[in-house]
Amino acid sequence: xxxxxxxxxxxxxxxxxxxxxxxxxxxxxxxxxxxxxxxxxxxxxxxxxxxxxxxxxxxxxxxxxxxxxxxxxxxxxxxxxxxxxxxxxxxxxxxxxxxxxxxxxxxxxxxxxxxxxxxxxxxxxxxxxxxxxxxxxxxxxxxxxxxxxxxxxxxxxxxxxxxxxxxxxxxxxxxxxxxxxxxxxxxxxxxxxxxxxxxxxxxxxxxxxxxxxxxxxxxxxxxxxxxxxxxxxxxxxxxxxxxxxxxxxxxxxxxxxxxxxxxxxxxxxxxxxxxxxxxxxxxxxxxxxxxxxxxxxxxxxxxxxxxxxxxxxxxxxxxxxxxxxxxxxxxxxxxxxxxxxxxxxxxxxxxxxxxxxxxxxxxxxxxxxxxxxxxxxxxxxxxxxxxxxxxxxxxxxxxxxxxxxxxxxxxxxxxxxxxxxxxxxxxxxxxxxxxxxxxxxxxxxxxxxxxxxxxxxxxxxxxxxxxxxxxxxxxxxxxxxxxxxxxxxxxxxxxxxxxxxxxxxxxxxxxxxxx
Length: 515
Known about the structure:
The structure is a single chain. The chain has helices spanning 26-39, 41-44, 47-56, 64-77, 84-90, 99-110, 114-127, 132-139, 145-158, 164-171, 176-185, 193-205, 209-218, 229-241, 245-258, 265-278, 281-294, 296-299, 301-313, 317-325, 332-344, 348-360, 367-380, 383-395, 403-415, 419-427, 435-448, 451-464, 469-481, 485-497. By secondary structure, the protein is an all-alpha fold.
């Protein structure tokens, strides 16, 4: 009697693999493996055990489709270090691994072990004709320019450059001049939004804001390259990284005005720090209100942290505290932002109290937390509290003090007039003090008339920064104020000997823009 359509006949090679000795059907085993991959995080962290289960259930002896797809999923979803090679070694020599499985192995290895990925690619080329997916993961992991050029020539010879994902992936690893050539060689129909975003990012990394803006404006001329929210985010964040915070805020205002796309959490996280640095509380407040209306303030903790930081840098501590109190799930960054904001605005007592609240609620402080709270102690003149916190850093919280923490302690002691204690702390530091440390001590000496220690601090600063004319002038003025005219003259002679010229004073007038 003939078998029903779609079912294997008893004499087919597949018949022997219908069930295993313990009664598992291959398709049942496949469904079980895929279910574990999709719904069990613990299983995804143990791919070798899942593969052993698949091998015992005779999946490799089944036809390549669809059972080998389960093995490919194992490779794609495994965590680093990738178990791709152990998995491949467990496969029987016959039949050879199918192309989808080897492509998955290349992808799994490309991020953490590019040399091994290229070895698997060589094996793949001996067994199969590679397809476009064989090369795509490697383009993001190539760090050697000669190797990239060789891979590029191979893709050209195989005819894969017409595949848009391949041509787009080639833009990222190349240096800017070569990426620009590749971009202009692409036909206009292939210059999609992703291609433009990639080149705009490359220009901004090279700090060429003018060229990036020109390309950004060009995107709207063509239908396939309409600006997306990612395009705006790239431009705003890139301008901020280039030190053009004014341009970043202007781009955000233009984005809102043109209304092509709505801002997302990435947009707000990029523009809010720029608003804080420029003091543009108006745009920052608009972004805060937008985040509240769209629910981003509740869903994205990095956005609410950026709002708090913006208000602190703009001097609106009350608004910052109000937003902070409304955070449901506070990260250590949330606490750090508010404590540092109190320090920045001179609210030392409030910052110390917030630090104590942080400890009561079980949040673990880090190095940034201690920088903020020690700054608060300096503003509040709380020497005893600051010393106790400094001592608890390593003993209680396991945070090793770095030179910035010692600088805060020198500032704290110096502001309180404890110049000898500050000098002793500097002499006992486990690392060599830098110019900022001695500068903090010098500022305290000038405020509390500590001329002897000020002389020591200035000489140390001159040794560290012999090119800085301001330090010589300060030391000469110090000698002149105490009537030590010969020493003042010697400092002036030393300046001439070292060819150090006094920097001329400058004035700046900002002209209102007419546009």
